[in-house]
Amino acid sequence: MRPAVVVVGAGPRGTGVLERLAANAPADLELDIHLVDPYPPGGGRIWREEQSPLLWMNSMAEDVTMFTDDTVMLSGPVRPGPTLAEWAGLDGQTFPSRPQQGAYLRWVYERAVTALPAGVRVHEHRTRALRVGGPREGRQQVVLEGRGKHLLADLVVLTIGHLDAEPDDEQRRLSAFAARHGLLHLPPDFTADSDLSVVPAAEPVIVRGFGLAFIDLMVLLTEGRGGRHEGDTYLPSGREPVLYVGSRRGVPYHSKIGYPWEGERPPLPRFLGPEQTRELLRRSGPVDFRRDIWPLIDKELGYAHYHRLFSAHPRRTATDWPAFEEAYAAAAPGSAELAAVVASAVPDPADRLDLDALDNPLDQVSLPSAEALQERLSDHITAGLARRHDPAHSPDLAVFLGLLSVYGQLIRLGDLGDGGRWHGFFSHLASGPPGPRLRRLLALSRAGIVRFLGPGITVETDERQGVFRAGGSAVPQERTEARVLIEARLPDPTVERTRSPLLKGLYADGALATPSGLLRVDPEDGRILERGERPHPRRFALGPHTSARAGGAFTRPRTGGPAFSQNDATARAVLGFLEDLPAPRQERRVTSRTYDDQGLRMPLTSDPPPPLAAVPPQVPDPAP
């Protein structure tokens, strides 16, 4: 009987694990690898090639790689490869379409398959996994969609990426209100998967959310309906709705930085590194994000900022770097002493780093009218775009590098118990849209297609008039009425509210969850943790549905790539486990993909399946 591994999810994370298996595997390995995903391997659901080319990546082509380099902390071998720009022959400064990224990911996947030892067979299953069962000490059974279909495996690795979620109480209430009054409510969803044809033209539409999901929505409801941009002017088709957009912050994410790094990089990590992370993990009491972690983040990002300011713009400082660095290091994080050190060395307040102001730029803003708000938002976006493309503000790029370093440390702490504050802060500063997208947002604002509601958005329902009503805190006297409400954000699934019956089943069978509902895993190798904090010896999980999730963006070359480190550790743990299994009988070595007439590969063993609790009723779930 040949050993077998099932990988559920064949998108970028599953592809990354496959690449690490190929890099670490001994030449004589005999193994069946089963990839389960209803979408094509490589791109998976989010990066599939069959989607609108109007949708772009939020990273430049030169900043996207699926390959390790010598900056990645891993035990396995480094296997370098081309960036997306190098592979596709693109200008590195361009923002590729998502179908282009899907093609790159498909090539990476095919290269990984080819790199596997000759005795490894790869089987693609274009379907969904519904349940994982089996004893801790024995083979696992993965139940697939379709009557009687299942796989047997020695190990299971879940790399299922972003998930759909059941609606929470508020979303159910809003949908019920819309149904009663013949309105339209689109709950959180992946914009590329939403049916936007039902959104009426020329009507006001309230949009709650100003992040990347909004940018996709904006594009599909304007250019996707025949409008076009000519320079700084938008020429409407007449089929666009009028988008009234607001959010907690009331502003879009900061755009990507539009200039390259030059000169010395800040030596990171400095104040939030492995030593500080180990100390936090050793604490006997609970770790409070705001009290214990945020000051370290503030000091680390400040160090990156000021290192760049002193090295690249010394005329804007009042002392030399060694003296400042010594005083900065000696001051306690978040203290008045630290603030005084900065104030004495950096005369212009505009050159000082203020994370709270960056996070909440419209906090406490009060304006007399909706038109004043449109002007204020337009000025804010315009100024932000200019700054993000001006090397005179290169400390911003140093802070970006600091954010990547911080994320690499925080994933070891698992769920921070911060209510998503860190992830939202990171996305706002580091994972925003391309600059051209925000320039087009400004053009749409001038054309009257987009109207800003500002920060602190609230949405109310009026049973008597049968409309949604929304407003923001900056102009509280202004309210907008509409018959359409769109939640422009991704679903936020927990192990209890996910639409994935696979994850629900794992949780019901004893897998642990974090306070915010993420699947708990061992940060060392991704093994799923069960009751009693026991790592399951045969089940692994990686990705955004776990407590060890890395940043959502693809890895930039030469930035350490925490996801690469995780993939390598999991792959090596898998291979180490397989080494201890009884040797399989010898078979002809072959690397292949095998399918049945429905694109599925059935188990390669005739063993009867182990006992398994009844599979829950099938829930429609576009996630693998």
Verbal overview:
It comes from Streptomyces pratisoli. The chain has 624 residues and is an alpha/beta fold. It has 3 domains: 4-165 and 493-579, FAD/NAD(P)-binding domain (3-Layer(bba) Sandwich), CATH 3.50.50; 180-252 and 434-487, FAD/NAD(P)-binding domain; 274-362 and 387-430, no CATH class. 32% of the residues lie in helices and 14% in strands. It is built from 16 helices and 19 strands. It has a 6-stranded mixed β-sheet, with helices on one face. A 5-stranded parallel β-sheet has the order 8-17-9-12-13. A 3-stranded antiparallel β-sheet has the order 4-5-6. It is globular and about 75 Å long. The protein starts with a strand and ends in a 45-residue tail after the last helix. Residues 586-624 have low confidence and may be disordered.
User: Biggest sheet, strands in spatial order?
Assistant: 3-2-1-7-19-18
What is the tally of beta strands? 19
As a percent range, the share of helical residues equals 25-40%
Give the name of the CATH architecture of the largest domain. 3-Layer(bba) Sandwich
Number of discrete domains: 3
- CATH names the topology of the largest domain as FAD/NAD(P)-binding domain
Radius of gyration: 25 Å
Proportion in β-strands: 5-15%
**Helix run count:** 16
Level-1 CATH class name of the largest domain: Alpha Beta
Backbone structural class: alpha/beta
For the largest beta-sheet, the strand count, sense and barrel status come to:
6 strands, mixed
Shape: globular
Low-confidence stretches: 586-624
Beginning-to-end CA distance, first to last residue: 27 Å
> For the record, what is the CATH homologous superfamily label of the largest domain?
FAD/NAD(P)-binding domain
Report mean pLDDT, rounded to a whole number.
91
